[in-house]
Amino acid sequence: MTASAGTRRVPAPAGGLAAVVVAAVVWGTTGTATHFAPGVPAFVFGAVTFGIGGLVLAAVAGRGTVRAVVERRTRGWALLGATALVLYAVAFYAALADAGVALGTTIAIGSSPVFAGLVEWAADRRPVTRRWVVATLVSVAGMVVVTLARSGHDGGGGALALGIASALLAGLTYALYSWAVARGLHAAAGAVSVPAGPGVEAVAAGLPNGRGLVGAVFGIAAVPLVVLVVVGGAPFLGDGGNWPVFLYLALVPTVLGHSLYAVGLRAVGASVATLVSLLEPVVAAVLAVLVVGEHLGATGWLGIALVVGGLAVLALPARRGC
């Protein structure tokens, strides 16, 4: 979700691809990592992860962060993106806690492009394409299948329903974050048209002020999240055994993962990077089964495959008229 600092020399395609692969893998470890800090509420995980990680990413963006906050044309979009990111931080970890790592991750990731298309249709009057409709139908079918598989094994219940709702809220708020960044980049760059969704980071990585805008979003979001965790999560911050997990989540999936993804985008492009990033739900599901002890079965894996397939349809380069 952010561009990397440092040299602008474009990395080799193989190196860029490796960076995206590593980013997707570390993102996929997020849910399993929370398993090693039992008893910590979801809001504490979200607040610490994006609070610390957001401050680091804002600092890495440096002056660009300040410029995006100060300039009128980007300030409002940065505030909107930060608000969405705060909600996403809490909703995503709540989904992992209540729906499970595999199901929560799959629904959050699978629903985000669906919501992104709806947001653009409602706010920008951008018509949906046949490819988006096909991808949506496939992804939604996959989410239904994996949900049924999970409810059939665990018996369903209020916690599962709440977890699914949290995952959908995470998908919606990530789509709103992406749309706000896209609109902010459009405002900063003039006539550049920026679609919302997973590929928005590619545009941010390649446009002037893009890194600063994303840094501003994360930096602004970090403020209420830090306050939230200090006020509501003090007992959990005082437990030294939780800090290895907190620091891992903030520095590895958040800071390192997003920075590597931005580096990879400079070499392999948005469509390839988005396709490779589909490793995330697969890694999350594998670790959920092997480490956390969740059960998916053949039906659950089929649902995950459908979600990944639907997202792959969106990630592939579009042909005219599609």
From TrEMBL:
Membrane topology value: Multi-pass membrane protein
Signal peptide limits: none
Subcellular location: Cell membrane
Keyword Transmembrane helix: yes
Domain EamA, first and last residues per copy: 16-147, 214-314
Record keywords, A-Z: Cell membrane, Membrane, Transmembrane, Transmembrane helix
Family membership: Belongs to the EamA transporter family.
Name of protein: EamA family transporter
Lineage summary: Bacteria, Bacillati, Actinomycetota, Actinomycetes, Micrococcales
